[in-house]
Amino acid sequence: MKKQLGFLMNLQKCIGCHGCEMACQNEHRLQDHKRRNVTSLGERENVIGFLSMSCNHCVNPACMAICPNKCFKKRRDGIVSHDASRCSGCKSCIGACPFNAPKFNALTGKIDKCNMCINRQQASLLPACVSACIPKALVHVDIPSMENEYSKLPVGIKMAQFTEPSVRFILPEKPKRYLANISGRRKEDSI
């Protein structure tokens, strides 16, 4: 079975604290853009919660196919890496990616994207975003080992069937919200 590293996002656990987002920015010393974004899902489609997204390290990355400078490479572990030294900043990859993962870095004039913290993984550490996730809503996984266990396609993204993103979701069974009671413990309240 071929290895494909990715992320498992548990929408039942994410509390929208932005810890993953801040950890990524600190780890990579990002000043003018974010590689990972946490967004509120609001109350649409019977889901109340938050979603944390970065590059999905797709099986068939659109960014890699369109890049005229061949800046993107698919590694044996499934990570899509980007060589900024080859990047001209043409932004073709930004338009091609259905997930808006590549970001233009105005300071360097080049594209930047999540590299799944390759340096941390080489030191046997988890990606910074995963390590910082206190409720354990974001997990680093090998996608083929858990195939068909979780929801594949992000709602409303049609290109996902072609790019095959390496992110899986645990969707809420029922919308829930968490309230702190007087003692400071968390109490679940179904809506």
Automatic annotation (TrEMBL):
The keyword Metal-binding is assigned to this record: yes
Domain of life assignment: Bacteria
Protein's UniProt name: 4Fe-4S ferredoxin-type domain-containing protein
Molecular function GO labels: 4 iron, 4 sulfur cluster binding; metal ion binding
Ranges for domain 4Fe-4S ferredoxin-type: 78-107
Entry-linked Pfam families: Fer4_11
Keywords per UniProt: 4Fe-4S, Iron, Iron-sulfur, Metal-binding
Listed PROSITE patterns: 4FE4S_FER_1, 4FE4S_FER_2
Sequence intervals crossing the membrane: none
UniProt keyword Metal-binding, yes or no: yes
